[in-house]
Amino acid sequence: MQTLQQVTCFILWLGLVPLLAGVIPSHFIEKKHKSIGLIYLCGFFMMFAVFQLTAVPFIVGKRTLTELSFSYTIVMEIISVAGLIVAVISIVKHSIEEYLIIFEKVKRSKQEYVAWIIFLLLLIFQMVMSVCIMTPDGDDAYYVSHAVISDQQDSMFLKNSYTGGDGILDFRHVLAPFPMFIAMLARKSGMHAAAVAHTILPVALIGLTYLVYWKLADLLFEKKQENVPIFLVLISGIQIFGNYSVYTSETFFLTRTWQGKSILANLVIPFVFFVLMAIIRRTEKGKESVGKGVGGCFFLLLLANLTGALASSLGLLLLLILEGVFFLVIAIRNHRLWLLPCGLLSLFPCYLYILLYVLGGA
Amino acid sequence: MGEIIEVYSEYSGSGILMVLFFVGLIYLALVERDRSVRTLLVYGSISLIATIFQPVVFYLYTTYVDGPTYWRMWWMIPIGIGLAYAGTKLISKHQTTGFLLVLAILALGGKAVYSGAADAKTAENIYQIPQAVVSIADELENREDAVVYAAFPPEMLIFIRQYDVAIRMPYGREMLDENWGGSSGFYQLMSSPELDFEKLAEKCDYNFTRYLIVDGNKSFLNQPQENGFEQIFMYEKYIVYEYTRIDWEQRQLELEAN
């Protein structure tokens, strides 16, 4: 019975909810011919962004995980139902074939199929390794313990995770409360938070990361889609053999998948590159009119920045520099100076949480 | 500038993947015709690298943000994406040979994440926490109705409270952190290769620590039993002692009264 509850919970929170929640943000990008992958991806970032917006006030206000989980569930239910309504209306208005890309009717070569199979095997290999191999890390004594404390003792960041004594709200970590997301999943599923962090989440996050790379590859190889699986095989190879030092994002990806900083480096930053590429394509120099969905891209950046905040306080600064530099480059290269104020607006979460961090520290 | 290059050297480590990334960047700068891809992977990467190598950025970051973590700035560079894109362009022209060549370079020039992680080993349970930690924590919980106060050997410190937060400890993972400025005499005694139970008894008295978990393979300077420790169970090489010179029922009543 407990296993059934756990399976149902993970199907719901890591499958159905992101799929429905992604309908609205993806609607701003494309109204028709949407890929399920893009909807799912947008949904996950929506979920993370909403969690960040909900969790920080609850934690700073010293409320309980029960209250946070209850409020977050209501908000996500509203967003999911709204997504369902929008999807149903769109399907009725057009048709399911016109609304969603379910099967791409593209003739693929034998080599392309081989590359897809190799990629899938590498993906499964990484997922299986994440379940079967433990890669202990000292920082887990902070992150995972806080998730366990919140789940079992219903207080958020108020205990000393190392010894169990009383603690103080440490703003650097309070403003990036990804451990509370783990705690919430543990609470809903009834599974131990350490098992959620080390065994369940990595499988979902590895899949999600490759989904980002897949969508990015679709944009990079816009006119040569047969190259997409080759790109994915190479990215997998780089991730597996990327332990050229302990600091690389690849090392973090497969040995600390569940930690916020790894999510920043391996999920949020590649997603930002995906969105930036979408903006670059849609605002190419020489095009008379700007492509559809640019506004939606900025909304996705906003979600990515909120997710970055959820993952790592320091990550906000990296996102600020990364996007700031890129908006400058894109505005100059594509002769679209109006991109600069739009970019500055989408960076709002970065200013907000950096300001809160400074005020909290003071 | 020297310090930034030092950080870069630490980040790029032993492999040749960073060198390959720069080769790929030059290759894309020379041959890539897609204007949008050039914007993202060539001009964007160069601008970010130029930003990271700015001494003023380094100064501001290390002074006002977080001194020891400047290496994280390299996470912003699309190293994997650029490398994979350049590799794909090469492979698409010479499919099988190129494919095998690039994978061979990755395997030989890089380092497998799983072999590189020093502590990586087969998971013993769904928590991915050593089974010895899980079993000892479960056994202590079974014996104790109230909060468990226990001191653990250094190798267990990062795991215990990931599994059981009802266990309280006189010292924790902060002892293993090289940036930690404090010290704990208790931890020094527990991490010593020779265990001095006379001094450990003083620490248990002072910290009200009821259980002591020690590595049975270590040598003992004196007998645990003579210093108030009673062996209650063993798990693999670990011996769990209960400190008996405190009236724990009385102690519990005092705690409840407070």
Structure description:
The complex is a heterodimer of chains A (362) and B (258). Chain A is an all-alpha fold and 362 residues long. Chain A is built from 17 helices and three strands. Chain A has helices spanning 2-21, 23-27, 36-60, 65-93, 96-99, 110-132, 140-153, 171-174, 178-189, 193-220, 228-240, 249-255, 260-282, 294-311, 313-333, 339-346, 348-361, and strands at 34-35, 100-101, 133-134. A two-stranded parallel sheet of chain A has the order 1-2. Chain A is globular. The mean pLDDT of chain A is 91. By secondary structure, chain B is α/β, with parallel strands linked by helices. Chain B starts with a helix and ends with a helix. Chain B contains twelve helices and eight strands. The model of chain B has no long low-confidence stretch (mean pLDDT 89). At the A-B interface, helix 6, strand 3, helix 7, helix 10 and helix 11 of A face helix 1, helix 3, helix 4, helix 5 and helix 6 of B. Strand 3 (133-134) of chain A pairs antiparallel with strand 1 (121-122) of chain B, so a sheet runs across the interface.
The geometry of chain B reads as elongated
Low-confidence stretches of chain B: none
| Poorly predicted regions of chain A | none
Question: Which oligomerization state do the chains in this entry correspond to?
Answer: heterodimer
- Percent of residues in β-strands of chain B: 5-15%
Report the helical percentage of chain B: 40-55%
Q: Compute the number of strand runs of chain B.
A: 8
Rounded Rg of chain B:
27 Å
Structural class computed from helices and strand pairing of chain A? mainly alpha
Number of helices of chain A: 17
Mean of pLDDT of chain A: 91
